[in-house]
Amino acid sequence: MKEQFHAKMLRIHFMEADKWQGRPLYEALVAKCMELGLAGATVYRGLEGFGASARIHHTHSLSISRNLPIMVSIIDTEEQIQKLLPHLDQMIAGGLIAISPVEAIRYSQHSKSSPASS
After folding, report:
1. Cα separation of 86 and 47, whole Å?
2. For the domain that residue 10 is a member of, what is the CATH number?
3. Of 114, 33, 109, residue with least CA distance to 72
4. Is the separation of the CB atoms in 75 and 102 below 8 Å?
5. CA-based torsion, 74, 79, 80, 85: positive or negative
6. 10, 16, 24, 113: most buried by Cβ count inside 10 Å?
7. Using alpha carbons only, how large is the chain's radius of gyration in Å?
8. What does pTM read for this prediction?
């Protein structure tokens, strides 16, 4: 089945070393998304980047310490994204959040009339 709908894409940019209550921020964000019932969240680890610090962060084959760019991407309805935003105000000390309107297409194996989808 194919379902097309208007949605919002939320992208949260921060650094790998960022924490929330003692755990990596990206883990805490994914857990919060699950807790709130969002459709899904994907964490991307960047190879190189810079932000407000104007300092380039990148991988080095000899580097032990890593503080690479991280992006968490979430696509869901505007209502679901709005549920998450107040939590981000508490969780994110430094970073960037971008919200964009998107046209989403969801594919699933079961049709709406299928008993398996009930």
Report:
1. 29
2. 3.30.70.120
3. 33
4. yes
5. positive
6. 10
7. 17
8. 0.81
Domain that holds residue 104: 2-108
Count Cα atoms within 13 angstroms, Cβ side, for 94.
10
Structure tokens at 84: 């998450």
Q: Is residue 113 part of a domain?
A: no
Tell me: the pLDDT tens digits for 20-65?
A: 999 999 999 999 999 999 999 999 998 877 666 656 655 665 555 5
Q: Tokens 């696509």 belong to which residue?
A: 75
Q: How far are the Cα atoms of 23, 30, 35, 54, 112 from residue 9, in angstroms, in the given order?
A: 25, 15, 18, 26, 25
Is residue 114 a part of any domain in this protein?
Answer: no
Residue 118 falls inside a structural domain: no
In a domain, 30, yes or no: yes
Match 């070393």 to its residue by tokens. 17
Nearest to 38 by CA among 1, 87, 75, 88: 75
Q: Which two tokens stand for residue 106?
A: 């969801």
* Number of structural domains in the chain: 1
The DSSP 8-state label assigned to residue 21 in this structure reads T
